Amino acid sequence: MSNGVSRKGAGRPAQEIARLQVQVMPNAKRPGVAGMHGDAVKIRLQAQPIEGKANEALIRFVAEALDLPKNAVSVSHGLTSRRKLLEISAPSMTTEDIRQTLLALVTQD
Predict the structure, then answer these.
(1) What are the tens digits of pLDDT across the range 1-33?
(2) Domain span including residue 65
(3) What is the reported pTM?
């Protein structure tokens, strides 16, 4: 599974799940993609990192950027960390497609 895509779900049609590492910067002046941070996509969020607000903002941001419903994006690891692993259900996109789509949104602060 070197491409970051796996299949999930027993007893129902296989669904492609892409996994993407992100580095979150909460409390930013404005939301956006800031580029790469090692092997992770660095994402700025205006939300504070309390009571799951930054996680909700991250899911909303990524879903909107990829034109997916919010329930297609979830945080699988790192709920309380700035470094997170997202699982994204996007049957027509690979992990690299998702990374490139997000990096196309890079904004300068």
Answers:
(1) 444 544 444 444 456 899 999 999 999 999 999
(2) 19-103
(3) 0.84
Element of type H or E holding 77: strand 73-77
Q: What's phi and psi for 103, nearest 5 deg?
A: -65, -25
The strand pairing partners of 37, in sequence order, are 40
**Three-state secondary-structure class, residue 67:** coil
Using one digit for the tens of pLDDT, what is the confidence trace for 51-73? 999 999 999 999 999 999 999 99
Q: Does the residue 109 lie in any domain?
A: no
Q: What is the CATH number of the domain that holds 87?
A: 3.30.1200.10
Token representation of residue 99 = 């990374």
Q: Are 20 and 42 in contact (CB under 8 A)?
A: no
Residue 12 placed within a domain: no
Task: Report if residue 14 sits inside a domain.
Answer: no
Closest CA to 61 of 96, 20, 93: 20
Tokens of 66: 């990829």
The total number of structural domains that make up the chain: 1
